[in-house]
Amino acid sequence: MNSLLPRLAVLTLSASIAALLPCPPASALALDAKTKAAARQEFRKSAARPCLAAQPCFKVRNTFPKQAKAEALPWRDIDYRTAPESYLRAVLAYIVEGNTAVDWQLHKNRKRDWYHAAWMHPVREPIHGLTFERGSRLHELSAVQTRRTNNWAIGFYNRQGATAFARVWRERSQPDTAAFAFPEGTVSAKLLFTDATDEEAPYLAGNNLAWQADIRGNGQPVTLRLLQVDVAIKNAPRDGLNGWVFGTFYFDGRGGHADYWDNLVPAGLEWGTSPTFTRADFAAGQRPPQGWVNPVAEALFATRAPDGKLGYLGRMNGPVDDPRSSCLACHSRAMDMQGASDPPLFPPFAASRIRQVSAAPNQTYETVLAAGPVDEAQVALFFRNLAPGESFDGTHPALDYSLQLAKGVELWRAWLDRRLAAAVPQPIAPEALAAPAGGGRGN
Ligand code: HEC
């Protein structure tokens, strides 16, 4: 795999020029006392804008514990390869316990400790703390869905996972991302909501979870309904894989259950990215070996372009997610970019021969194999099974598949950069007058 890294560096070169400039890790930056105090204050914030009258008020829970507690993990003895549905249902039961009774206000859960990722407040709306997700393109939700619908989400980590956040954010004013890893037993979950109507996604009707959210930022909330629930579980690494299992559920009210969480149907799970699986394999009718996709889900979302599958060449992905990727593939990109641009999300058209196109009134994807052969080596760079601690681009610190941790650290750095840039005119040392304003930070 290491021999592929120089090629990846070429691929991402234009996006990561900034990474070549000297940029110290966050923990090495010397912040003055005032900046540290301001950063600690920011850390405690829940959302970008103030709460609204007569609406719930989202309260972030980021008082991360240093120690995990011993607890029974009911899925531990279930083999996700041979019994993926039972495995997923055991995980879901653990996640909903104590949370549904308090409408996912984590600090009120009396059953179990859950925490939000730190420093996502600049992108959270104030009612439920939701953040903007990828919109659903033409026909991704059903054959009659043509409008690009809006999706918003919130994620959280169990106590084990939160101990890893405690280490990164031990100093609340500046994160330390060196040698990061989550402990075994970490569980993360994410609820994804949509503004799709019954016409656009008929399976959303029924006893669903409906939340108000200020997604337009104008103080006039809209109603969103639960569409997808993502889960990520960290087991002990085995068989050369890193231990993560990523799975997802979609809501189907036609099940008719009285409790909305019983209407969640397993869509599939992935324990590896199936790195050697090629387009020729797919065309021959094979399916990626390191995952399971529920055939019922695949049939329900069969109108997704470019090939009616949830993820790339039939890999596991959620209905809300980009069909050119897969859960683990996208999450393997989690790094502390230290001010540089994120790596690309999926292989370029020149490699995969799949591109996004406008098809009024929305967008979709098409495969253009006539444009030339698929470059399997290039594509494979996006579908690797990275070892624990292995960085996607070989340069930036790996964040063990947590894109929320990555996002929080990125938002912290953006805040710091703005603050330092704004402060530049204040101390006017004679030699500083010769330098361009804001110059010299390297990012
Ligand atoms: C194309 C990229 C992409 C794909 C594909 C993707 N995710 Fe994510 N996911 C993200 C980003 C970005 C975040 C962090 C920001 C946020 O939560 O909105 C995230 C957050 C999460 C979280 C919260 C914890 C964390 O790791 O950050 C979970 C759990 C999660 N995703 C599970 C899944 C599952 C399960 C799938 C497949 C069904 C999936 N994701 C597919 C991009 C992706």
From TrEMBL:
Is Signal set as a keyword in this record? yes
What is this protein called in UniProt?
Answer: Cytochrome c domain-containing protein
Alphabetized UniProt keyword annotations: Signal
Q: Which positions carry the signal peptide feature in this UniProt record? A: 1-28
